[in-house]
Design brief:
mainly alpha; two-stranded antiparallel ribbon; 62% helix; 27 helices
């Protein structure tokens, strides 16, 4: 299966097939073309080479037959471009303007409606080849704000609050209706609906998500942003047949749930909580972590769950990211990740601005009907929101006036959480790369009651099949500081997707660090 982390490269290696690219570009602008029609447009090319290019493209499944026309002599065959053919046009030289033109006219000339998710697939393919650092493109370094929101919410809500119970219930049972939640919680639908309005952007909830203070200070602006994150904990989905709302936790909601568990009891509860999410949400949220949960549990044991400490605890995270790479930490890795993310956000702004101009010009000329560009405009709205996510005033205006036909609030929450997931996966796996991370587990007061259990597990895993003279001598033989790194390497050997994702990040960080060094060396004094 092709995933965002295992995308194919260009369809050519060295010599650029100019004529084949011309054929694909021309087919985007037409619903179909024959070889002879194309040759009339580009009469500098002989029919034989045109025919060979069409045949080669068809073998690669970049074009397909689109009917014939009976006339004198041989029937005239027509061809149309395929999804794979359009994707092949997204080479490294394509501009954002050309990208938006290509997919817009592809949608216009498609015989049937473009299938759901195709625009997003095209966008990912383009971004991977267009950007200087493709890792984390469209992601947001925002875990501190999510932690602050969780702590604020916990401080303002008792542990018996209905909101906590809703989050705990949805952790085990995703996609419940209000009737289902009311039945499981044994409380009225009115109470459930009222609390859902506070933790989701549910239809009919409070539309004014960011209460404006009389004086727009930095504190109040940040407070309004945390208020927005609070409304992102639960996401709703609908079925077109009966317009029933089905609720489940978003990524923000899952972080909230794990924070609840962490603050309530011993660390052993965190293991069962992560197992619950890994089972209920494995195909929905954090595919690089919960989608691989069985592999993580097999290799890491309890550390698979305890490693979430770097995501749930700001103090623990600051300790992990404060140590330099040369000292066994991940400081430069994390700093580079945040810098690359910031750089990519600026790239997103350019992509959005050029896309908006393309769509505006096309609509102004009445070339394409609005329904043909609906999915493209939805993608543009997503790019716009993510490229300015920290502009609270703009977010407020966009969410209050959002055209639900294109990009409703539920789409916004999902897009925002997808953007959060890259930083979360980065911290989770790069913390395992940290040589000293396991030692910090044993020293962390929260894990004190489990420290002997953790150490016993690590020793047992490191010496399978061996019978030491004593438990104490076995501990002495064990290299604690390299345990999680060795296990990370084993996980990457067993999972191609994690290996590809991790390797791409390492390559981009190396490239970024070289660019920083080159910039410094060019300074003149």
């Amino acid at each position: 299966m092709i995933t965002p982390y295992l995308l194919d490269g260009s369809f050519y290696n060295k010599k650029k097939p100019i004529l084949q690219l011309k054929v694909l570009s021309e087919l985007v602008s037409h619903d179909k073309l024959s070889k002879s029609q194309f040759q009339k447009f580009f009469n500098q090319h002989h029919y034989k080479e045109v025919s060979e290019s069409f045949d080669n493209l068809r073998k690669k499944k970049f074009i397909e037959e689109a009917g014939t026309k009976i006339g004198r002599g041989e029937p005239e065959k027509f061809y149309r471009i395929t999804e794979e053919g359009l994707e092949a046009l997204f080479d490294r030289n394509i501009t954002p303007e050309k990208f938006w033109f290509l997919i817009t006219f592809y949608c216009w000339n498609s015989v049937s409606s473009v299938r759901s998710g195709l625009i997003d697939k095209f966008y990912r393919s383009f971004v991977k080849k267009y950007t200087k650092y493709s890792s984390g493109f469209g992601s947001i370094a925002n875990i501190d704000q999510i932690n602050d929101m969780c702590i604020n919410w916990l401080n303002n809500n008792s542990h018996t609050d209905i909101g906590s119970k809703i989050i705990e219930t949805l952790a085990s049972y995703p996609l419940l209706t209000i009737d289902d939640l009311s039945s499981k919680l044994k409380c009225s639908k009115t109470l459930v609906k009222k609390e859902l309005d506070n933790i989701s952007m549910s239809e009919g909830g409070d539309g004014y998500l960011f209460p404006l203070d009389e004086y727009d200070t930095e504190f109040s602006t940040y407070g309004r942003y945390l208020g927005m994150l609070q409304h992102c904990m639960v996401i709703y989905r609908t079925k077109a047949s009966n317009k029933t709302f089905f609720y489940e936790l978003s990524l923000v909601g899952i972080i909230m749930y794990l924070t609840l568990v962490r603050h309530r009891g011993p660390p052993e509860k965190l293991i069962s909580a992560c197992n619950r999410i890994g089972y209920s949400y494995r195909n929905r949220v954090l595919p690089l972590i919960f989608g691989k949960w069985s592999t993580l549990r097999k290799n890491l044991g309890p550390i698979a769950a305890y490693n979430f400490e770097i995501l749930l605890n700001k103090e623990a995270r600051n300790k992990s990211i404060s140590l330099s790479v040369v000292m066994g930490g991940i400081n430069e890795f994390y700093a580079s990740m945040k810098s690359i993310t910031s750089y990519n956000i600026e790239q997103m702004k350019r992509i959005y601005n050029e896309g908006e101009e393309v769509i505006f010009n096309i609509m102004k000329e009445n070339i394409i009907k609005p329904e043909k560009t609906m999915d493209i405009e939805k993608k543009l709205q997503e790019v716009s929101l993510l490229s300015s996510y920290n502009d609270i005033a703009r977010l407020q205006r966009d969410l209050e006036t959002m055209n639900k036909q294109y990009f409703g609030r539920d789409n916004f929450v999902e897009a925002l959480c997808n953007a959060f997931s890259e930083e979360i996966a980065f911290l989770y796996y790069f913390n395992l790369f940290d040589d000293s991370s396991f030692s910090r587990f044993l020293a962390n007061p929260y894990f004190f009651s489990s420290s002997k259990y953790l150490l016993h597990y690590q020793v047992k895993e490191s010496h399978k099949g061996k019978r030491p003279r004593s438990y104490r001598s076995l501990i002495k033989q064990t290299s604690i500081d390299t345990f999680t790194r060795r296990k990370l390497i084993q996980i990457m050997k067993e999972t191609d997707e994690i290996h590809a994702w991790f390797s791409t990040w390492v390559d981009d960080i190396y490239k970024f660090q070289n660019d920083v060094s080159d910039t410094i060396l060019r300074l003149e004094f």
